[in-house]
Amino acid sequence: MRKKIFSGINWLVMLVTCSSCGKVIDASKSESYYVKQGNVYFIPGGNSFERGSKKMDADPQSFQPLAETYGKDSRHVFFRGSKQEHIDLNSFQVEKGIPKDKSHVYCYMGDDIDFNRRGEDVLSMIEQADPSTFQRLNAAAIGFAKDKNHYYYRNRLISVDYKSFQILNARFMKDDEKLYLDNGELFLVVDKSLKEVEKVNNEYVLVDGNKLFYFQPFKKEGVIKSPLSPNSLPIEVVDDDLLKTQKEVFLFGRPIPGADPKTLRVLFKTKTELIAKDKKHVYYNLEVIPLANPETYQLLDGRVGKDDRFVYYTNKKIDVPDVEGFRKVMDSSMPNVTFQDNKGNVYDAWGVKQESKSSR
User: Fold this and answer.
1) pLDDT tens digit string along 55-77?
2) Please, what's the b/e burial string for 159-195 (b: 16 or more CB within 10 A of its CB; e: otherwise)?
3) Rounded to two decimals, what is the model's pTM?
């Protein structure tokens, strides 16, 4: 019943919102430009209730949308309902999502979600960009573009050797002189003295045949540089964060001490965590789980596993009186219960003991 009432309210709000927008000018080009009472309005997605609207200083007789947020009338180019006084009207176009006129390429440096309701949203010129050859690059790394003379990162000109510049993966780029990094916000020089760099996967590069460089923005650790042991090549890629050489296992850019690449088996893996075992040890991330027996260790669910003596959550022992009977609950009517044992105890997904029905 509540869902029906909620859906009805949503439908009513949408109906009122759409009716208050006026008439969409050209839905095939944009659902954000409307005419109402003889005026042109910019209403993002036609949703004035949530996203607001802007009355424009535009001629309703000649105004035409060019793309979702772009339009023009007989006098001006408009972006998000704002006049662009500095753009050439006659030559302006939006080609493959790129706004440009005969002399310049433009970009927006403001908020991509919310338009400026009180002021003006102004397009900026991209420095030295050639409008006839400028293109966005569909590469592993996001935010790069080029024209016939230059490369650009996040709409800013970057100083690289044009002929030799390469995007290696999502993090690293190179030319004949330097190794570069995209840290998610800035384009940085990593090293100026490297002889050879090659892509390993999306996160790693192999440097001079004997070092691994790794970068992951959310880890906030910078570029992690790890030397390889002699005769370690070739490299086996397990995933973006996990590699095996002939002698070592690398996780998040660092070697797992003592891990055997030939027998290591991944049991649980996320972008921040690993549970694995080889013939000698069980591992949580870069550390051995103390006392865990790799011969009997099994992962039960999530981060909870057990061997013949103990139950573990990640790398910590859990106080369970019946290790042998400890198991995942396949069908439980009790909320917050994931595991149980043969002594009537029940546990949540973290292995924390819960109150059972029989003890209430």
Assistant:
1) 999 999 999 999 999 999 999 99
2) ebeeeebebbbbbbbbbeebbbbbeeeebeebbeebe
3) 0.83
Give the three-state DSSP class for 157.
Answer: strand
The per-residue pLDDT for range 177-188, each reduced to its tens digit, is: 999 999 989 999
Provide CB contacts within 8 A for 131, sequence distance 6+: 100, 101, 102, 103, 104, 105
CA angle 205, 216, 316 (to 5 degrees): 115
Identify the CA nearest to 195 among candidates 176, 167, 211: 176
User: Per residue in 215-237, pLDDT tens?
Assistant: 988 777 899 999 999 999 999 99
Nearest-CA neighbor of 70 among 106, 109, 111?
106
Of 221, 261, 223, residue with least CA distance to 242 = 261
Residue tagged 């694995």 (tokens): 276
- Rounded CA-CA distance 266/270 in Å is 11
Cα angle for residues 332, 333, 339 (degrees, 5° grid): 30
Tokens of 181: 């990094």
Tens-digit pLDDT profile for residues 148-179: 999 999 999 999 999 999 999 999 999 999 99
